[in-house]
Specification:
Radius of gyration: 20 Å
Helix content: 40-55%
Strand content: 15-25%
CATH superfamily of the largest domain: Glycogen Phosphorylase B
CATH class of the largest domain: Alpha Beta
Distance between the termini: 49 Å
CATH topology of the largest domain: Rossmann fold
Order of helices and strands: EHEHEHEHEHEHEHHEHEHEHEHEEHHH
Length: 389
């Protein structure tokens, strides 16, 4: 049997990996080694490891790595702790390969330990661009540490190959996060209020997520305030707001959001973690997704729901027809929301196709992992492209 380790460190990442984890766990030729750390173990961010336990997946290792600090020094120390703990876990379990997704600093730390231990890395969601974040550099670094790649679009496949990876090991699988939209029986509109214990029957609502912008000096705190000022102009809409990630300045954003909920408790619900089922159910019926989360660009278009993407956090990432871009000021955000609610744009969304895939990524990825040889793939030559001068 192949021993396949999978690392997850955040609620969102787990949702994207869910069907891959499930497929590997149920396959007779695979021994799943699930490594859980980061925000999953933090009560401050919802202690989301409980969701993994409730889903019935065996957890091979719990890695405490997240310090109670969102400063640059605190994040760096968390990465150091994660590398040390991951090295010990990899030595104990000796996986044949490690599956990682995306661009988080936790994943970079785990990848470093695997690389030194000569464990092949299977990377998901490489080749993407997010110019406002340190995630950009982390993602491309993970690509260079990895041997097998699953990307979300053909454009991202070309970019991974441009980074010197062998085209034979770079697969356009589509985005696995879309799979849950097709596979889960999501809640009905009538069940939403009960689902989150908050009245959504009387007014329409927006689903809002705003994460730190880690390459900006103040981390996006001012932009968050501007977004909230803009949302004040839409009093007829309720707001379901999810917590930001545990990145630099994350706790500053949480403080602002706590204050906003306290001042608008009749129309605002702030949630540490909704989990995949509730998040996607709310996304399906909301009037718009607002903020700077990648889910607004990747998953939301499948529902034909408008997204208002704010600022540079996702700059460079492929956007479909349902995405409206807003600058980080109240007027720009308000104008984008007005456009999203217009009959003309709703009509555009109704006919739009999600460029990130059709919901079959996880099956493809599991099949490739099961049937790919993992022997002698650690050493890889740099795949040079031919250039004409």
């Amino acid at each position: 049997m192949k021993k396949i380790a999978v690392f997850t460190g955040t609620r969102a990442e787990y949702g994207l990996l869910y069907w891959i984890i499930k497929g590997l766990n149920e396959h007779t030729e695979i021994e799943l080694q699930l490594i859980v750390g980061g925000m999953h173990l933090s009560p401050e961010f919802g202690y989301t490891i409980q969701q993994i336990i409730d889903d019935g997946f065996p957890i091979a290792e719990k890695i405490e790595m997240l310090l109670s600090s969102d400063s640059a020094v605190g994040i760096s120390k968390s990465m150091g702790l994660a590398t040390i703990s991951s090295a010990e876990a990899i030595e104990r379990h000796s996986p044949d390969a490690l599956v990682l997704l995306g661009d988080r600093f936790e994943s970079l730390a785990v990848a470093q330990a695997a690389m030194v231990a000569r464990v092949p890395i299977i990377h998901l969601h490489g080749g993407e661009a997010t110019e406002g974040l340190i995630d950009e550099a982390v993602r491309h670094s993970l690509t260079k540490m990895s041997q097998i790649h699953f990307v979300a679009t053909e454009a991202y496949r070309r970019r991974v190959i441009q980074l010197g990876e062998n085209p034979k090991n770079v697969f356009n699988s589509g985005a696995p996060g879309i799979d849950s939209i097709h596979k889960l029986e999501l809640a009905s509109a009538d069940d939403l209020s009960r689902l989150i214990d908050f009245d959504l029957d009387s007014r329409p609502y927006f689903l809002v997520t705003y994460h730190p912008v880690t390459l900006e000096q103040e981390g996006g705190v001012n932009a968050l305030r501007e977004m909230l000022y803009a949302l004040d102009d839409f009093e007829n809409y309720k707001l379901i707001i999810t917590y930001p990630n545990a990145d630099t300045h994350g706790r500053e954003l949480i403080k602002v959001l706590d204050e906003y909920q306290d001042a608008h408790s009749d129309r605002v619900l702030l949630v540490r973690s909704l989990g995949q089922y509730r998040y996607l159910s709310l996304m399906k019926y909301c009037s718009a997704v607002i903020g700077n989360s990648s889910s607004g660009l990747i998953e939301t278009p499948t529902f034909n729901v408008p997204t208002i993407n704010i600022g540079d956090r996702q700059k460079g990432r492929l956007c479909g027809a349902t995405i409206l871009q807003a600058q980080e000021d109240r007027v720009s955000i308000k104008n984008a929301i007005d456009e999203a609610l217009s009959e003309q744009f709703i009509s555009v969304c109704r006919d739009a196709i999600n460029p990130y895939g059709d919901g079959k990524a996880s099956e493809f990825i599991v099949d490739k992992i099961v049937n790919s040889s993992l022997e002698n793939i650690i050493k890889k030559p740099f795949h040079d492209l031919e250039f004409k001068l």
